[in-house]
Design brief:
seven-stranded mixed beta sheet; two-stranded antiparallel sheet
Length: 293
């Protein structure tokens, strides 16, 4: 079944990868109306997430965010397929890193770095980062259940030189790389909800008491890595900017969970400024509980 789905979908992916951006965005406009008005794709999930995250907003305000979110979703969906055959010069023009000197300073200090970001804007284009840093690029990702799409995803994301690490192999692979020569960059998207059975830390995120991933903090402290937040912003359709903010280059100076809290607060600010660019189609608050007294 997985192979059949892949065989059916691949011609569409192949076609999108070869179209120009003007045509892609015309298709995106059409796809938005189909997903939102015809199939109502995860509309109830998005609506519930926005209600939980922004209870103070009016229904009209949340509806506007909801529609803009689906417009952004179809853009990202097709931009991801386009990146399978996207030239590096085109990527450099459309995805700009504003202050790479933050990473350069860490590199010059002979320190590995964890760069944390959220599922916001077009995170799929971030792999062009190889062009602005001397670090070896590694990205932690959640393995897809469909092995054919997983292979395609790994190939697409690694085409610019990134080493892809599955979440289940993270600790083992970082341990291995730490023994080799060269400095490493590890990309983490830690805004998704961990499994409730494995959660060890809970805190408030967008007005909801939820479990939060702490793996990046644990690894940073163990190997004395710097931690940087990467803020992605959409400038206009098909154009993005990324900026870096140092959270710390002395992770062992912090109490447990303080670094995770700093990261979560930065993600909150990012989302609150322009909530339409966050990925609301996942059940962000599925494990929410009442906060402790």
């Amino acid at each position: 079944m997985n192979l059949l789905v892949y065989i059916i979908a691949y011609p569409f992916i192949w076609l999108i990868s070869r179209l120009n951006f003007s045509t892609i965005y015309l298709i995106s406009d059409f796809l938005y109306y189909v997903l939102y008005y015809v199939f109502s794709y995860r509309k109830s999930v998005v609506r519930e997430n926005l209600k939980l995250a922004f209870p103070e907003m009016s229904k009209k305000e949340r509806l506007e965010i909801e529609k803009n979110n689906f417009r952004n979703l179809t853009d990202i969906f097709l931009e991801t397929f386009k990146s399978t055959r996207m030239e590096e010069n085109e990527l450099k023009k459309r995805f700009v890193f504003k202050n790479p000197e933050v990473l350069e300073k860490i590199y010059n200090n002979n320190q590995d770095v964890i760069v944390m970001c959220s599922h916001y804007c077009s995170w799929e284009w971030v792999f062009g980062i190889r062009n602005i840093t001397r670090f070896n690029i590694n990205a932690v990702y959640k393995q897809l259940s469909n092995k054919y799409f997983d292979k395609l995803t790994k190939t697409r994301r690694s085409q610019y030189g990134a080493n892809m690490i599955t979440t289940k192999d993270t600790f083992r692979e970082i341990s291995r790389l730490s023994k080799l020569e060269g400095l490493n960059f590890y990309g983490f998207a830690s805004d998704q909800s961990p499994k409730k059975s494995t959660a060890v830390y809970w805190n408030n995120f967008l007005n909801n008491w939820v479990p939060i991933h702490i793996g990046a903090e644990v690894i940073a402290k163990k190997y004395n890595m710097a931690i940087v937040f990467m803020d992605l912003q959409k400038i206009k359709r098909g154009y993005y900017e990324a900026s870096f903010s140092l959270i710390t280059d002395k992770p062992k100076d912090f109490e447990d969970f303080q670094l995770t809290d700093k990261y979560i607060r930065m993600v909150e600010k990012q989302i609150q400024n322009k909530p339409e660019y966050y990925t609301w189609t996942h059940r962000r608050f599925k494990h929410r509980q009442s906060p402790p007294n």
